[in-house]
Amino acid sequence: MEIRQLRRFLVLAEELHFGKAAARLHIAQPALSQELKSLERALGLRLLDRTHNHVALTDAGRRLKDEAERIIQAHDAAVTAMDELRSPTRGTLKLGVAVGVAYPLLAELLSGLGSGEVAPEVDVKPAAAREGVLKLLAGDFDAIFIHAVPPRDERLGVLTLESEPMGVAVPSGSRLAGLAAVGPEDLNGQALIWLQRDGDPDVRERVLGLMMDGGMLPGPHRWSPSIATTMSLVSAGLGVSFKVPHQVVPGDPPGVVWRPFAGVSYPVPTVLVWLRNDSSPLVTQLVAQARRYVAKQA
């Protein structure tokens, strides 16, 4: 019994009509009839009840249909897996990426994936730190880029790619822009602009807590749908925003500038997390590329 025979039998079992099944398979109807007879002889079972104008599956035919579907699905999955080993670009890499992960970093790590002939498929979706780890463990992601080192778990591979100091984005023409570093009390009464879909609320709450512990009396909170909109609001003098340096792009006056915190230290890591037992080619390549990146920064 061959895979080809099972595929043809499945088409016939779906159509229950020799003419329609033969048309779908692009073969002659007598050839399909001979294929069925050969399969029945090999199994020693009748698979179809045939009359002049009626075709129905026997009990053996229904059982073989179920088994054939399972066998073909497993066969095709094995073929796909072997194809991916020969050509890593055929796979799809499912990535979870936290808000604010540096685009140049992602571009450098992803640009080296695949065989160099055809770029792999990369499916990128937002991922907060805790939620991202859970989705990674559940198989929804192949790897995640987040801003927190996850709790120790033997199932996880963890690599810190870089770390940036948290500071504050302020209008370039403001009093705060004239300071070399901005302390908590310098921000008293200032409106704080937050992303509405903050990928790492733990970071936000931790930084806010540290600044308030240092004496900051925060002003009203304002919300923004994106980093670009946040920068526009800061530039317009409508508030300030806690940011790492790469998220602030200086522009023409009034513009926006970034200032480090004075008296408060909060480094924000960018961390790659993957499953240790994942030996898929794209994940293996991504991790290797990430290790080279870290070595280059050292």
Summarize it.
The chain has 298 residues and is α/β, with parallel strands linked by helices.
Give a verbal description of the structure.
The chain has 298 residues and is of the alpha/beta class. It has three domains: 3-86, Arc Repressor Mutant, subunit A, CATH 1.10.10; 88-162 and 273-297, D-Maltodextrin-Binding Protein, domain 2, CATH 3.40.190.10; 167-265, Periplasmic binding protein-like II (D-Maltodextrin-Binding Protein, domain 2, 3-Layer(aba) Sandwich), CATH 3.40.190. The protein is built from nine helices and twelve strands. The strands form four sheets. The chain has a five-stranded mixed β-sheet, with helices on both faces. Strands 10-7-11 form a three-stranded antiparallel β-sheet. It has a two-stranded antiparallel sheet with strand order 1-2. Strand 3, helix 5 (103-111) and strand 4 (121-126) form a beta-alpha-beta unit. The longest helix is centred in the first third of the chain and has 28 residues, at 59-86. It is elongated, with a radius of gyration of 30 Å. The model has no long low-confidence stretch (mean pLDDT 86).
- Strand portion: 15-25%
Number of domains: 3
Biggest sheet: strands, sense, closure?
Answer: 5 strands, mixed
Tally of strands? 12
Would you identify the CATH architecture of the largest domain? 3-Layer(aba) Sandwich
* Approximate shape: elongated
Tally of DSSP helical segments: 9
CATH fold-level topology of the largest domain: D-Maltodextrin-Binding Protein, domain 2
- What series of H and E elements makes up the topology? HHHEEHEHEHEEEEHEHEEEH
Strand order of the largest sheet: 4-3-5-12-6
